[in-house]
Amino acid sequence: MPLFKRSTLADQMAVEIQQEAALYKERCKNLHEEFRERLRRRDETKAELAEIDTELSRLQGRGISLLGQLNDATRSGDDDRLREMEKSYGRNSRELDRVGRRREKAARRFAAADLDEEESARSLARAASDLLDEHAARTRELKGRLIELLDTLDVQKGEVSRAAASLIEEHDLRRRPNAAG
């Protein structure tokens, strides 16, 4: 293989190593973004749970207050107020049930997201490790081939230098006046 072609091939291999590194870097970046997205979804569910818990606390406090008012209405014998308090307490209880069901669903989503995050972290760590191993193996292979090419180039360069040296010496001998005579 001509010297120029081997040199070009070595340059191409060096570029290929850089491209491989960029490709693996991009793949790892995508894995990291996927993991961050899963964390974001888990955090959103956690925030939703906190909002629901706040709403539940408010409804429970209201329920306790309504029970006190219902008790007062019972003691006072005010039937109209008693019916009104019973309706209010019933509405509050239904609202508590509805919000409680919402919380159960959100808690299941959070538990699933939390588990998913843990599994994702392990899975993504394995994938990133595999990518790095694959990249390292590929880089070692390409570097090995590149070193072989560079060694071949050095040998050929030495051969060219020796051939050129003898040609230069022969040329110098021809140019000397006493060598011609």
Topology:
Blueprint: H1 3-76, H2 79-175, H3 177-180
Helix pairs in contact: 1-2
Biased composition (Basic and acidic residues): 75-98
Keywords: Coiled coil
Region (Disordered): 73-98
Task: Describe it.
There is one protein chain. Helix content is 97%, strand content 0%. The chain has 181 residues and is mostly helical. The chain is rod-shaped and about 145 Å long. Residues 75-98 have a biased composition (Basic and acidic residues). Residues 73-98 are annotated as: Disordered. Residues 14-62 form a coiled coil.
Report the CATH architecture.
Answer: Orthogonal Bundle
**Count of alpha and pi helical runs:** 3
Largest sheet: none
Strand/helix succession: HHH
* Total domain units: 1
Coiled coil: 14-62
Biased composition (Basic and acidic residues): 75-98
Region (Disordered): 73-98
Keywords: Coiled coil
Keywords summarizing the entry:
Helix Hairpins, single chain, 181 residues, 0% strand, 97% helix, mainly alpha
Brief summary of the model shown:
Helices cover 97% and strands 0% of the residues. With 181 residues, the chain is mainly alpha-helical.
